[in-house]
# Entry
Amino acid sequence: MQANRGKVLTGVLAAAMTFSFVLSGCGNSGSNEGNANNQGSTNEATNNGNAGEKPAEKVTIEFWAQKFEDTTDAWFKKWTDEFNKSQDNVQVKLTIVPGDAWTQKLKAAQAAGKAPDVMTRNYSGIAPGAKNGEIMALNDYMDPAVFDDLYDNVKEFITVDGKYYAYPKLVEPSAVLYYRKDLFEAAGLDPEKPPVTWAEFIEYGKKLTQKGIFGASIAQTAPDLGWSSWGLQYNAAGHLPITDDWSKADVMDDKYKELLNFYATLYKEGIIPKQQLSAYADAAPFGQGKLAMTVSGSWSIGLFRNDYKDMLDKIGVAPMPSIDGDQTKPTATLGGWTLVIDGKSKKPEAAAQYIQYLLAGDPAIMIDFFKTSQFSKFSPRKSVDEAMNQDPAASADEWRKLIAEKVIPYAKAEPAYPWDISIAFATAIESAMKGESVDKALATAEKTINDFIAKSKLAGTNPQ
Amino acid sequence: MKKKNMRLDNLTAYTMLIPIVVLLTIFVIIPFVYALIVSFYDWSFYQESKFVGWQNFVNVLNDPLFMKAVVTGLKFSLFVVPAQMILAFLFAHVIRSMGSKLSGFVKTSIYIPTIISGIIASIIFVFIFDYNAGLANVIVNWFGVENQAWLADVKTALPSIALPAIWLGFGITSLIMLAGLLDIPDSYYEAADLEGAGPWTKMIHITIPLLKNVVLYLLITGFTGAIQQFELSLVMTGGGPLNETTTPNLYIFNHFRNDVLVGHSIASALLLFVVLGSISAIIFKVLNSEKAVDG
# Structure
């Protein structure tokens, strides 16, 4: 009896212990959140305090911006201050949240019904967010004219069921080829003729590989491939690995086999490192001279211009090579950021007023942003581009011109389907790189995607 | 008289229990019940939540990645816990035989990794496992082996993550083990000496049996801690290559991050709870812990 009770007790103890461990896991995310709060800087009221003026009752709205480059953070702060000073009705409280803490912090706030009124969101999050009621349609709160200023393809990104759910800040193509002109010359290649087909990319990569310098770098882990290969999926097959109505996987395509073989060859031939030197979005190893070519987003231009100034003469920029050399096929998706209003916001008018001021108002505000980002990002607004073309620094920028003319016009929108689909296909690419046969890798992806469609009742839910 | 005292004792005991009972209720029992409830819903923060019965659990159990994550967690603990225990056992012996000044210094030194955050350790080890110029590759190069993709190769990724986990937990495990060792009365060893027992016999028949409860504690905390390892794979590999290092908690975290509805994440967390509870129960059963034998 005694022994028995002991066992029961220890059982209870075991349960309690495991429980406290499960909890301590939760506790961690909580403390992250606290850190985020501390790191996030808040701009408190700066009353311009004209003597004699009646102190107006200002509506305060919360704005959470994800942490980007320091220049972007500074830009948010500067123009939020300007907005607060410019009128007496709305006070915006800006919090900058580090990227790794963003999801936890936002999810926790959403669960508690305390999400910020205004927040940053990327294009692929708009359709699912709108469908789920997380964000509000802006049609009733913003001047319809500001949406006419947007380029048509970008307008599509923010439209769900005929309504606008976000106002875009920028677009940036997900894949651009950067190459070292000096290393091209040393390897006997023409520095003015970057590769245009995948076969050439592989061939040049082999020639450029030498001790200490890899021929190329491209995404090679599933989480990176998940989004960075969308453009090449379009490039190869002209479609994504799922039918347009999201009813079943559309993976079994010979062109996708070529895509997987392209990545697998780069990996197996040692043209790209066996273990990535950095994540796809971070092109620092190229700036440090460890790579002869790299594929990364247009944002890397900002990195090179700010941090690797002595490399700039040696860097060439070109569109990402295409499966067959046809450079009018998409090679990239247009990623980018928008501002949205929370679905439960109680002050949508004030929030919309702020968004309109910041993103849709005076072109000078946005030009200030594109300048500080070293023209590595692109405007979704026609009027901003027109104004920018008058600007000598912008119009003389060759890289900006090349991307604006040769990459963006052919780039596609980011897909709105759940991430599970993207990661399933990306896993196929990665397993082909790691030695799985291409057919088997694609078959697994097909099954995973079809299972996911069935499980989450995805068929027919494409909002666009 | 005796009876009255007992009642007083009980009163004191209950009073002392109140704070922890209140805290447990607020932070454990209520959230647990709430989690149980929402796990049966398609829980959305913005729309009416839909009751879906066992669907979330069925989805999780049918997800090959969840099972793989649990197996990964187990494999990971099998790398970490035994290595840690053996190292700690040996090291605790070394410390015990040291002079008090030196042992103070050593104890402090080995404890340092314990207070380093897992994130910092991950970043340090990412540098060590760097493909181009990491310490690990420099060392294998001395032996004429070419650069290894420690974190990107399916075969080496999990052991490479286990290494920092061992390093992080080694200090505290050694100290607890040392405390257990010091708790064993010297007279037992003296008696054994008189009987002519060698060091090996003493270890098998005195040290290890008397350390049983300490070992039990370390095994349970070690296993539950290791299976729930999360930040090392998040920072070092992101769960890759090919989900080889996706531990159960990282699996849950990824779903929490990416899913529109939260039911799946909660169902998997509850199932993980079941897994952990079973493992702890098995360890208790196997070691058959009773009260301390020496009394």
The CA atoms of residues 124 and 416 of chain A lie 5 Å apart. The mean pLDDT of chain A is 86. The domain at 175-331+416-455 of chain A is CATH 3.40.190.10 (D-Maltodextrin-Binding Protein; domain 2). The two ends of chain A are 67 Å apart (CA to CA).
